[in-house]
Amino acid sequence: MTGGQETGGGTADERVALVTGASRGLGAAIAAALARDGLAVALNYRRGEAAATELREKITAAGGRAAAFRADVTDEHEVAGLHRRVLDAFGRLDVLVCNATGPQPDRPLEETRWPDVLDQLEFFVKSPLLLAREAVAGMKRRGYGRIVHVGSDVVALGPPMSGAYVAAKAAQLGLTRSWARELGPHGITVNFVAPGWIPTDRHAGMPAEATEEYAARLPLGHLGVPADVGEAVAFLASERAAFITGQTLTVNGGATFG
């Protein structure tokens, strides 16, 4: 890496973002929004190689910069390798978006075991920790960085039979607030985007009645789309949000307030 690559935040078209779980759904929408804003985007995936390749081709066809990287972001060695490969490809990493997720089964309290909680913590505490630990050294050297956690409004709602998931997402919010105070003096902001239920391809089998009922309860009266979350993350990754850190930006059509 050259001295120029390690100095300052640079302009938007010099910056590089890593989006985990970027092959589909919210991650793909986030990556597309960042690429539109001029950032080079490292598209992380674990299983969706074809989808990640298609997204990369779409971004590059539109004049953007993107590359796809397979890695399990809950594995310490794979995260270290992912970081090295992103630096090899783009020379720097300015924006880290922790979006990767796994199954979130409904499970009543009586049937919840400690390994069920650990399964959720793997994605929402361990993975962000491993990723941020790799990324912050370069951000500190440049005096600039953005870390955006993709959380959930379940922290505010507390839905039943989701204790393990809610606890892990609440812990991710705790990381956000602590890291914001720790990293702020280094020019690094850390924020938490909290989507409500936004249908993606993983919800293809959801009955229409369920989606209509949910939408009817929202003050805005309609469902959100993945691009709504993409825009929220792109805002927090931009200079427009330079004085915002440690905050939660909820994207759920008004399902919660405050």
From TrEMBL:
It comes from the Bacteria. InterPro entries: NAD(P)-bd_dom_sf, SDR, SDR_fam. Pfam families: adh_short_C2. Gene3D superfamilies: NAD(P)-binding Rossmann-like Domain. PANTHER family: 3-OXOACYL-(ACYL-CARRIER-PROTEIN) REDUCTASE (PTHR42879), 3-OXOACYL-[ACYL-CARRIER-PROTEIN] REDUCTASE FABG (PTHR42879:SF2). Belongs to the short-chain dehydrogenases/reductases (SDR) family. This is SDR family oxidoreductase.
